[in-house]
Amino acid sequence: VGHSKGGKESLLALTQHQDLAQTAIAFDPADMIPGTINAKTFKDLAAPVLVLGETWSKTHAIAGQACAPKGKNFEAYWEFLPPDLLSEQIKFKNAFHMSWLDDVNCGLTCSLCPGNPSADHAEVRRLSLRYAISWLEVHLRGNTEFETFLTGADMNADVASDAVSYLLK
């Protein structure tokens, strides 16, 4: 499990050490280094993956650099996952790259990522925690009761409230 570059690293670790983990969860994975991820990077990935993200930070930037730029944000990671891999993407409508942090005003680094004024960070973290726990319950413990939070009635309620949207592979 990781956020931003940590999300990228969790996916890379799963790719390179599939014998050590059974799944990965990436919160708004992003990387500024050109060419470090592509379809070849994840072609052999076999374990299920949950990718959560936002789209505000792909275009909003300070000093010209977006925090999760288009082509290097969670949407790119999602596209690079194999088409037959069991995976889910959850997109938060009102979040920005730092919404997953306990303190979105964490200092200089956080100040470089402009915030979405309509973001509800507590709600982003609450829902993210619910999705992550549900993902782990389903994919590590085989507890299908939690599928309602990922693809069932509870997820549909989140979609209907316009909090998130989701895609499945």
Write structural notes for this entry.
- The protein has 169 residues and is of the alpha/beta class.
- It has 5 helices and 7 strands; from the N terminus they run βαββββαβαααβ.
- The protein has helices at residues 5-16, 74-80, 108-111, 121-141, 153-160, and strands at 2-3, 24-27, 49-54, 61-62, 65-66, 87-92, 164-168.
- The strands form 2 sheets. A 5-stranded mixed beta sheet has the order 1-2-3-6-7, with helices on both faces. Strands 4-5 form a two-stranded antiparallel ribbon.
- β4 (61-62) and β5 form a beta hairpin.
- It is globular.
- 37% of the residues are buried.
- The mean pLDDT is 89.
Q: What is the average of the pLDDT values?
A: 89
Largest sheet: 5 strands, mixed
Instruction: Write the H/E string, N to C.
Output: EHEEEEHEHHHE
Strand order of the largest sheet: 1-2-3-6-7
Oligomeric state of the chains present here: single chain
Can you give keywords for this protein?
single chain, two-stranded antiparallel ribbon, alpha/beta, 169 residues, 5 helices
Per-chain topology:
Blueprint (H helix, E strand, L loop, with lengths): L1 E2 L1 H12 L7 E4 L21 E6 L6 E2 L2 E2 L7 H7 L6 E6 L15 H4 L9 H21 L11 H8 L3 E5 L1
Parallel strand pairs: 1-2, 2-3, 3-6
Antiparallel strand pairs: 4-5, 6-7
How would you summarize this macromolecular structure in one to three sentences?
The chain is of the alpha/beta class.
